[in-house]
């Protein structure tokens, strides 16, 4: 069974507390924290996500799945380590070179946190193969990062398949997370391709009953 990481990006203002409790009751596996800086991507959610993450930390024991869509990775790692997340994922494309990728992997691990590496749709998955043995999760963006509610790019299913094949052939113990456009219609092909953690926001938050849709996405 796959795990579900619920993106809290589009939670209605004023309903945050109620929604967090309901998502926990509905058995989401993680709260997905979409951190955007207005530079690496258009939108800026930085302060809002710091507030949400620290609030969730106070009221819930559910793990935080922090996704950094930022230029200044170093600073963002420092800021979000404060909320003791389960995992911090940063973007390969935001790094200047391979040495910097390894530097950030090491920094996150040294702070007793799992590491994820994310790739945008236009990045070839082969570019990050060399880092897979050092990380806990690879996040494949199935839409262009920076906006909620987009439609899944079908080519990304092949990308997940390719990654899964490489992981299996090389016996690497790693999670594959798919993020963007995940709903009941698209979840099946993404899971069949090899993703075992699905990020879903709009589809879950628009549902009348969070538990029903989370259960269906997991199956």
Oligomer: single chain
Q: Report how far apart the termini are.
A: 6 Å
Task: Give, in spatial order, the strands making up the sheet with the most strands.
Answer: 1-2-3-4-5-6-7-8
Any low-confidence stretches, pLDDT <50, length ≥5?
A: none
Main CATH class: Alpha Beta
Q: How much of the sequence is in beta strands?
A: 15-25%
Fraction in helix: 25-40%
CATH superfamily: Aldolase class I
Please describe the biggest sheet, giving its number of strands, its sense, and whether it closes into a barrel: 8 strands, parallel, barrel
Mean pLDDT: 96
SSE pattern: EHEHEHEHEEHEHEHH
Shape: globular
Q: What is the CATH architecture descriptor?
A: Alpha-Beta Barrel
Strand element count: 8
Count of alpha/pi helices = 8
CATH topology: TIM Barrel
Number of domains: 1
Task: State the secondary-structure class.
Answer: alpha/beta
Over the alpha carbons, how many angstroms does the gyration radius reach? 16 Å
């Amino acid at each position: 069974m796959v795990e579900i990481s619920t993106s809290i990006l589009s939670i209605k203002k004023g309903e945050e507390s109620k929604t967090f409790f309901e998502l926990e009751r509905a058995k989401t596996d993680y709260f997905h924290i979409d951190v955007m800086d207005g530079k690496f991507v258009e939108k800026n959610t930085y302060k809002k996500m710091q507030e949400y993450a620290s609030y969730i930390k106070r009221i819930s024991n559910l793990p935080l799945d922090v996704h950094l869509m930022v230029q200044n990775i170093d600073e963002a790692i420092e800021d979000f380590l404060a909320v003791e997340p389960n995992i911090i994922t940063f973007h390969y494309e935001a790094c200047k070179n391979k040495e910097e990728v390894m530097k950030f992997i090491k920094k996150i691990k040294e702070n007793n946190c799992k590491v994820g590496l994310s790739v945008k749709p236009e990045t070839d998955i082969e570019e990050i193969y060399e880092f897979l043995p050092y990380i806990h999760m690879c996040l494949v963006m199935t839409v262009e990062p920076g906006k909620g509610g987009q439609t899944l790019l079908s080519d990304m299913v092949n990308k997940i398949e390719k990654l899964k094949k490489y992981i299996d052939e090389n016996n690497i113990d790693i999670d594959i997370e798919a993020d963007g456009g995940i709903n009941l219609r698209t979840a099946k092909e993404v899971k069949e391709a090899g993703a075992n953690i699905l990020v879903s926001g709009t589809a879950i938050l628009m549902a009348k009953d969070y538990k029903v849709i989370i259960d269906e996405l997991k199956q």
